[in-house]
Amino acid sequence: MTNKESTFARPVYIVDGLRSPMLKARGRPGPFSASDLALQVCRALLAKLPFSPEQIEEVITGCMMPSPDEANISRVIALRAGCGKSVPAFTVQRNCASGLQALDNAAQDIAMGRYDLIMAGGAEAMSHAPLLYNRRMVEWFAALNSAKTLGAKLAVFAKLSPVNVLAPVIALLRGLSDPIAGLSMGQTAEKVAYRFNISREQMDAFALESHKQLANAIDNGYLANEITALYDTAGKVYTSDDGLRRETTMEKLAELKPFFDKPFGLVTAGNSSQVTDGAAFLILASADAVKRYNLPVLGKVVDVAWAALDPAEMGLGPAYVGAKILKQNQLSLNDIDYWEINEAFAAQVLGCVAAWEDADYCRQHFGWDTPVGKLDMSRLNVDGGAVAIGHPVGASGARVTLHLLNVLKRKNAKRGVATLCIGGGQGGAMLVENVEGVE
């Protein structure tokens, strides 16, 4: 098939992009807040390009867990990056696809003619996710605040118990659970594995390949043009993704116990994405801005699609939205040269691939008369994915899009789709093309 014209009224180009190294959370807050991560990435990105930060017309950031000092974190980032007080900025939240949502909003604003030059992406410091007071403790503080006399305050203190103090709400775990389905994200991956009969061995083999592919990409310098170093206040430099496990083997992965459905489940820490801190940003531009500033062109945004499904099987979101974006653009599975499917869980990516091959599933859920098709796995996540790299939820949508564009350039390929599953039962996808300049 050949694709139809872009759904955008004006062409939308991606000029350039950078990301931070993805830093694995290691049981305590990492060295950078979300805005710190974003700031270093944005400053390095802006320094590469022939315009001043003040000429950026809008900044959009995906972030799920900004700190209390980062309200509307996108505005904080824009001001700290030197974009100036007159540049508007806003923050978006769509769980795991928040970074992709930021790119979608930017593309829409350029397409409709509102702006010509936008910086968009995402940032997340998952290691900084807070501990929250539980309901009992909140009510205790409310009672203390209402007590007016010393006697009344002492009476409130007498009711303080270890149960109140020692049972905080862990925001990260709460955020990675679905309130409607009553399942953690890992449990939804177990359901996907069960539906498509995906074995533990298949998941572990996929995870091992993710680490091998990332190691190969690092060793061959494939990531050098998309990662900028981070510097902490102690002078330490971070230059590469530190969740990579070069030494892992199928035997080591097999030793890990189920994490989300104990003791009988299949999903482990080894075949799941890592809890990670990181940021990724891209510059999007109209044709006018590309010409005005004589900008390079990394690629063109052709279309964006969103889909929704049962939250209990949220990991199948890329299968739903992948089928949707193909249909919208009159494309077949084989018309896409490379795919980036965010590896929230090995089971989830394998489930999406299986869903596309299942004629009954495609007919029932996608409205296709035939299977979507059999995906050539050599064209999927060719340099590894979130199992090895990590999944800072606000940033991953921008990261997979940036990397896909670089893969298309490296492979001299034309067309790619970046897609993610989304907690709550959704999927997001962006169709991009490798172009040399404005058309």
- Give the CATH H-level superfamily of the domain at 12-129 and 273-433: Thiolase/Chalcone synthase
CATH topology of the domain at 12-129 and 273-433: Peroxisomal Thiolase, Chain A, domain 1
CATH architecture of the domain at 12-129 and 273-433: 3-Layer(aba) Sandwich
Please report which band the strand proportion falls in: under 5%, 5-15%, 15-25%, 25-35%, 35-45% or over 45%. Answer: 15-25%
Rg, nearest Å:
22 Å
Biggest sheet layout: 10 strands, mixed
Would you tell me the overall average pLDDT?
93
The rough form would be described as globular
Fold and architecture overview:
It contains 16 helices and 16 strands. It is of the alpha+beta class and 439 residues long. The chain has a domain of 279 residues: 3-Layer(aba) Sandwich (Peroxisomal Thiolase, Chain A, domain 1). The strands form four sheets. Strands 1, 2, 3, 4, 5, 12, 13, 14, 15 and 16 form a ten-stranded mixed sheet that branches. Strands 6-7 form a two-stranded antiparallel sheet. A two-stranded antiparallel ribbon has the order 8-9. A hairpin with a 5-residue loop joins β10 and β11.
